[in-house]
Amino acid sequence: MMVRSDVKGVRVFPQHADLSDLAIIVVTYGSPDLLNEHLTRTAAEVPEADVVIVDNYHDADSRRGIRSIADQLGWGLIENETNIGFGAAVDIGVGRAHDRGASWFMILNPDASIGRSSVRALLDAASSAPLTLASATLLRTDGSVWFDGADLYLSDGSTGATRNRPASVAGDQVAEWLTGACLVTGWDLWERVGGFGDAFFLYWEDIDLSFRVRALGGTLIVVPDAIAVHDVGGTTQTRGARAKSEVYYYYNVRNRLLFAARQLDEHVARRWLLGAAPAAWAILMRGGRRQLLRSLGPWRGAARGTWDGVRIARRELRLRRRLNRE
């Protein structure tokens, strides 16, 4: 179930948890400038919260920069020797923060920032009922809405903003999900759902997490009064450019099929597999047609993502059938 407040400017959730019980978990990959620009601002807004950085290794210079910031500000720092992916890094960060005494966790992109009242509203929402996962409303730097709820269309695996859902689409034809860019959760839910896991590496892990929270009987909440500002693309593409990275295309195409094989009925997953090529094209078009004339990277990412996604999904489906027979 997705829950929203219809009352702007009014706190609708009772306070159940204290900000001193909260840890902010940020995964970095070569982005010390983003920490200086965004996370320092957020940490100053909630000084009683713990901060844990998980640095997926990018290069020596960025590692030194991230280490310097963490040392200067007293933040916890986990330095991975390689890039282990977003989900696995978050899991490590949440575990470390729990060991350091936190019982509530805000997962925040390094290119996002959020103020104190919004953090408070998110924590209130997440602690208002058991098994609740809460997301902020995310705005771009120009003030436009980047996220205020999202839908996964179960017919074909496409996604869209919940606010733009056609009236003709029934509720059982979509699965609502929360972005991993700014989430708050408690330890009980995180432990029970098993965190993100490492299967997706990048992209779709938040859709998968939302799906599993709902399967547990949990609640997804978008909090309209909790506003985070997201410097969209700061971690994945050249700022101001529509084109996206080869990595973006590869994992979005691949992980769509992995998710289907893991979470959906087999006949639905097979329908997604049959639509793998047109779905890959639709994902490519998020970056526009001009990019396809300038670089082979997008083509390569989509082609490899389709090949690997089909192969992995078929393997997952075979495994499911074998386990069901046993």
In short:
It contains 11 helices and 13 strands. It is α/β, with parallel strands linked by helices and 326 residues long.
The CATH topology label of the largest domain is: Spore Coat Polysaccharide Biosynthesis Protein SpsA, Chain A
Task: Please tell me the overall pLDDT.
Answer: 91
Q: How many extended strands?
A: 13
Under the CATH scheme, which architecture of the largest domain would be assigned?
A: Alpha-Beta Complex
SSE topology sketch:
Layout lengths: L1 E3 L17 E7 L3 H14 L4 E7 L3 H14 L2 E5 L5 H14 L4 E5 L3 E3 L1 H11 L5 E8 L5 E3 L2 E4 L5 E3 L12 E4 L4 E5 H7 L11 H11 L3 E12 L15 H18 L2 H9 L1 H9 L5 H5 L2 H29 L1
Parallel strand pairs: 1-13, 2-3, 2-5, 3-4, 7-13
Antiparallel strand pairs: 5-12, 6-13, 7-8, 7-12, 9-10, 9-11
Structural features, described:
With about 325 residues, this protein is α/β, with parallel strands linked by helices. β2, α1 and β3 form a beta-alpha-beta unit. Strands 1, 2, 3, 4, 5, 6, 7, 8, 12 and 13 form a ten-stranded mixed sheet that branches. The two termini are about 35 Å apart. About 45% of the residues lie in helices and about 20% in strands.
List key phrases describing it.
3-stranded antiparallel beta sheet; 326 residues; single chain; Spore Coat Polysaccharide Biosynthesis Protein SpsA, Chain A; alpha/beta; 2 domains
